[in-house]
Amino acid sequence: MTDRPRVYLAGPEVFLPHAREIGRRKQALCAAAGLEGLYPLDNDSRAEGGAPDRAIYRLNVAMMRRADAGIFNLSPFRGPGADAGTVFELGLMHGLGKPVFGYTNAAATLLARTPGASRDAAGDWRDADGLLVEDFGNADNLMIDSCLAEAGAPLVRAEADCALDDLAGFEACLRMAASRLGAAP
Amino acid sequence: MTDRPRVYLAGPEVFLPHAREIGRRKQALCAAAGLEGLYPLDNDSRAEGGAPDRAIYRLNVAMMRRADAGIFNLSPFRGPGADAGTVFELGLMHGLGKPVFGYTNAAATLLARTPGASRDAAGDWRDADGLLVEDFGNADNLMIDSCLAEAGAPLVRAEADCALDDLAGFEACLRMAASRLGAAP
Question: What is the pTM of this model?
Fold first, then answer.
């Protein structure tokens, strides 16, 4: 066990074939920064028992409650926006009053990534279904970008598109988290 | 003013052309159930001042903190999953310890709605990019379905696809919320 500050490592990389390897890389970077990285896939949902999805949920929530902060990979996932599980966890940890940090590996705005967006008669952007598309220059829904900005650590945005498992944005978040949590490398 | 229990009304209908009308309909249903519906578009973000996205965020968060519970429209939005803003708010209100209720107007599972999903050699479902697709029978990411189920009010799922602004699922959530909050119609 350790008494280094604990950081929950949220992101859709848990769905990649090499999910565990990415977790190890993130945890090694955390250790070098004087932090302990908590990775959801390290939970043993079989030991928890019950329906597997509910067991995973309970263990992830317990891990977030145990963490001192969270770092969120908010890269687009199966659509123009971030992974729903990661976004839920961002809201949860912010609601729990813990420091949150986030990055995205996509360079464009949400508006630029939304297929078929065009201006309506009032000048608002709408997609092909007539649904409003936000035009604030944000990377995602305003609740996500603004949560991070208002909490003092604006979303780290890639300058050029990079892969879901690229860690440059993560490392930038890690520096902010280490500083906020007073970690000693 | 009123002393009826207050329910935050979250969902992507704020992006529809008739967003305000849907808000009025939801608020009328709330009133009939003995509740006060708080609708994000009723906030005056211009009076709040500053960058408009940040103003909207701050007012929405203040509204959620003022609410006694939340009802979330988790219907798919621009992709296989729910609207990111709504999912963030679900996490936030759950983190704040408030009762949460949710519905979706899509009948299929997340797996059935994910394009190009097929089984890999290990028997797991993967999309065309090799990303794992959850196979728990849920309507969305397990964090969403399980949050609601573990909190005592499982996600209300449409039996057949209906429009984003259909309110049958909302009314089912409203009945649960009124019961939980001890509302008097």
Answer: 0.97
